[in-house]
Design a protein that fits this description.
Layout (H helix, E strand, L loop, with lengths): L14 E5 L3 E7 L10 E12 L7 E6 L2 E9 L2 E5 L4 E4 L4 E5 L4 E7 L1 H6 L1 E11 L10 E5 L6 E3 L6 E6 L1 E2 L2 E2 L10 E5 L1
Antiparallel strand pairs: 1-2, 2-3, 3-10, 4-9, 5-8, 5-10, 6-7, 6-9, 8-11, 12-13, 13-16, 14-15
């Protein structure tokens, strides 16, 4: 493996905002500086925020159409429910990949335990544009629990990679994608 360095072309400051019922996010794109990364429509870092008991916020029912959302949970618990009847509590390390296709209504709320006890919420969500020919396809929901995530390792065991989408160290993700993207969590 060779190493090379490159100059930093530009520094983009993530925009701070609140979404849904009032949870904080940082959004590096889209912004006025960085607004066309097709097929990637949006990247949000949700939190981190420490919610007191009874105060955790989420995103109540809202529609999506023509793209996929990928949620990767770092801490806390999130309850996903959608108009297709999918229902899932996400825990740290879990990933959900929702294809909105021709349209879906869903919510992403703190789990009942998170609402009751509070705690740290921290996650990432990426929106991926569907190809024009797939924008009106049916909806689907894919969930991979942390303990079922494919793991790749370097020969010397110094690198561990969770393969959420794509391939690393000969290990292929379980998630089926419309757009060939790579999404991985590396520990070195």
């Amino acid at each position: 493996m060779t190493s090379s360095s490159r100059e930093i072309a530009e520094i983009i400051t993530a925009q701070r905002a609140t979404e849904g019922a009032g949870f904080p996010i940082r959004r590096p794109f889209p912004t006025p500086q960085l607004d066309n990364l097709d097929p990637f429509l949006m990247l949000d870092e949700v939190g981190p925020i420490d919610w007191p008991p009874g105060q955790a916020k989420g995103a109540p029912d809202h529609p999506h159409r023509g793209f996929e959302t990928i949620s990767y949970l770092l801490s806390g618990e999130k309850l996903h429910e959608d108009s297709n009847g999918d229902h899932q509590i996400m825990s740290p390390g879990d990933v959900q990949w929702m294809t909105a296709g021709s349209g879906i209504i869903h919510s992403e709320m703190p789990s009942p335990a998170m609402i009751k006890s509070g705690g740290r919420a921290h996650s990432f969500q990426i929106w991926v544009n569907l190809p024009a020919k797939n924008k009106m396809d049916g909806q689907r929901y894919q969930f991979i629990a942390n303990d079922e995530m494919p793991l790749g390792r370097s020969d010397d065991d110094l690198i561990l990679v969770k393969v959420i989408a794509g391939e690393a160290y000969g290990v292929t993700a379980k998630i089926d994608t419309y757009v060939p993207v790579t999404l991985q969590d590396w520990t070195m």
